[in-house]
Amino acid sequence: MPSISLVDVAKRYGKTTALDGLTVDFPSGSVVGFLGPNGAGKTTTFRCILGLTRPDRGTVQVLGYDVARHLVEVTRRVAAVLEDPGLYDTHSGVANMLIAADTLGEGHDRIEELLELVDLTAAAGRRVKGYSKGMRQRLALATALLSDPEILLLDEPLDGLDPAGQRAMKTKLVALARSGKTVVVSSHDLADIEQLADHVVMIHRGRLVAQGPLSEVVGPARSLVVEVDRPSEAAEALRAAGFGVELADGRLVVDTEDGTRVNRVLSEAGFHPSALTPRRPGLEEVFLRLTGEGT
Amino acid sequence: MTGLLRAEVRKLAGRKLYWILLAVLAGFVVVAAFFVLVFPRIAPAEAGPIPVIDKPDAYLVGVGQVASQVWFPVILAVVMLGTETGSSLWATNLTREPRRGRHLAAKTGVLGLAAIAGAVLGVLVWTAAAAAWASGSGTPEVGDWADRVAKLGLIELVWVSIGLAAAAGLRSVGPAVGVGLGFSFLDAVLAVWAPWRRWSPTWATSSLMDGRRVSDILGGGEMTAGEAALVLVLWCVLALVVAWAALRFREP
Lengths: 295, 252
Description:
- The complex is a heterodimer.
- Chain A is of the alpha/beta class.
- In chain A, 35% of the residues lie in helices and 27% in strands.
- In chain A, a hairpin with a 2-residue loop joins strand 4 and strand 5.
- The longest helix of chain A has 16 residues, at 163-178.
- Helices cover 80% and strands 0% of the residues of chain B.
- Chain B has one domain (2-249).
- Chain B is built from 13 helices and no strands.
């Protein structure tokens, strides 16, 4: 059973169509990259899942519960960190955790452990007003984990973080997925999702564009990266054999998946490549191809 | 529900706003006490129709004065809900507890008690002022005190509810404060008009508190205490229904 299932979900805000008959399944127990450019409908999708927004039509199910009829059950199993996490700036980090725990009806015994998990133990007593963006994101993640949810929805969790902060957050998210949770990470940054997700859902203008395991969505390798001495001359040999070749940073990018043939051509021409590496298209290429954008 | 109540207490206790409002209320009460209890004695010509009030009446008049400080419960309620509905806090809280009615009930309970505590403080400040400044002797019966403080509790709850309705509807602190206080002002002005007076929360307040001096100035109380209490309860219920509907049917 998918953890989250949307069937023909539509939502308009005045004249703006946010979701246009979206039908999609989010699988369980993995990191799911939820992709789309700004305005694609990612945040609206999250809000429909959380019951914050009522769709104009369609159904949203979470772990088998219809959100429209069993929102309380859904809320017990899903936690979210919205793009702008709601925190009480006038209160300390630990006070925010206490307020969140009380609102959830949870005990306080995991607070210390969760603050340690997100590396905020030292800053827990300080007012959130003085926290950096990364600290706020981490505190929001800690509050989301208080109820030990089965599903975690994270709306642009890496946005605004410095590289070290992004690395740390990615590590935590992968660890959460490995512990059995379904972690859905929305982002407009395709490179981040490539490093993070096992499964990808792409939407554009409120509609599904692609979904599936990352390897399937990205597709097979379409080119080879060849490391060889005298790359310019080796490129000429490959072009003479009918391959398309580009030089990039002293390496050759050859437009074929057939490594055997490339190796034979180079060997016959007297070259000995030190590496032949399949190069898969990036998510960005895939996204642009599927949506027809950027052409 | 217990957890939600605890959460609301934590939110309130951690805000300087509440303590500042208490201090301002105490200051207003001292100033009001001076002008009601001292000024008519030292400057009767300037005091105009305000009579000299001696003990024990001087104590009980203060309860009505505190009740008229509706800005305190309105601002308290508007700020505590408005800062949530005007930011992502409200949506975040709904992801933890999606039933808006429970949030509203918890806020009404905690903020109502907080407003009552503030009003009791105001009464204590007035009592101290009256003890020090008013002439005469004697203190009211305990029953009189209890009766007026209970009525004061209902009045505070009404204006907390109106503040919550304003914040829920407008989702922004500034406009909601304006609407809440504006309503109290407009209501006080409209209370001179008989058809409105029977439903006016301001008039019901003064009738309930037996504010003889206000009714003497404006022209006779027409409500019994029971009728006044009923009007206030209806306003409380109406405001909470409006607040719930605004939270439920508007997109957060």
